[in-house]
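Most newcomers find our protein records easier to grasp once they have seen one. To make this concrete, we reproduce a full record directly below:

…
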Amino acid sequence: MANLIALPEYRGRIADFFLLTFLRDDGNPAEVLATFDGILKKLHSTRDVNILVTFSKDIPTDFEEKFREAVTDKGMNNGRVKLQLMTMLSLCKVIQSALVELESISPQTICNENDLIPRTVFAQDPFSVLEGPGDLNSLLNPIYSYLNFANSYMGLCLADDAEPPSFMVRPTTFLFNGANTLAGENYVLIGSDSIVLNVESHGLSWEKVRDDFQGYYGVDQLVEIGGEKEEFPAFPYCSQGRFQPVYHLDMYITLCGPVENSKGEKEELVLVGQLERVEGTEEVEDPLLEPLLRQIGKSLDKTAKELNGKKLGARTCRVVRVPLLLDISTGNYFSWNNCLVENFGAEKEKILYMPDYVIEEKSEDKLKACQKKFVETVKQEGFEVVPIENDFAYYAMSMRGSLHCMVKVLRRGEYD
């Protein structure tokens, strides 16, 4: 499984830089190249291509040979494809050294000097927002994200622009994505892929990584979602993580805060996705795909079962299932879990802002039915549902993200 991240020219040091980030060490070079075939060919037609492949733990001894063979099979000139292999931890150390030089340079200066316009629609990913020190909020930023300048730029600008200063960037060599952590009232859910990645990269124990994350977030309860026993295959790709049914928690889990049940008791409401398939793909004759989809479905069910009745913060969790619609042709989801929730208290106003995927009459019946079911389910829990219109269907199918991915909550109040 790989993600392609473009790094623009950074103070003249790097001309064209593409990062293939491996979350596991069993990636097939030919399949990785195929994923980004169009981009690589377009670049290759005009200039040399520099590719850095990072591995979570060990660098396979035969990877470069297989990669070169795949490049040749694509009809590309191996001499114009520059390849470098590193572990994530060694790369973090390189970035950490560079930050000493760059820490006094403002992001605006970097952009102005190099004519850069950083672009990213996903504000959720680059960092986590923490309270303190003092009146400030800290932006816990994995230094690994500095390879994606648009991501690092976001946190740096928040820290630079606020008057009076209200944010500070706190770099860490820990590897994580903001969308793979969900914060409730004095508790945090974290995807196990984030823990495993740091166990392997830093050579630390599971308990040590877990305790460090809990220390970073400053909460009494850290709940791991996933595990380290049931590993998902890398291919075929249906947006699965390594030990998670979907790569980021915010794609299949929504924390809704306190609600009042029929007995007048306060509960912690959590929405968990339930696997659905786009019309026409309910039966696919693929010896690899069908077992994977069964594994994803069972893992989602297991997550729902483990959370339901669990004490989260001061309240007991009640899980409600909602549709999570998979388009097998792209391997991506229409996720209504990827929404925003505004909850002022169990007996107060509660609003859920939902990505509206059904913006045309020609939308598929299954998509319409799933969205309708989601709205009805949430309304039954006492929430007002506000559909947000954008090209969310495009973003979901082409960029694997939606509304929650595009928004970062910087401050939140307490429940009334």
Remarks:
- Residues 284 and 305 are 28 Å apart (CA to CA).
- Residues 289-307 form the longest helix (19 residues).
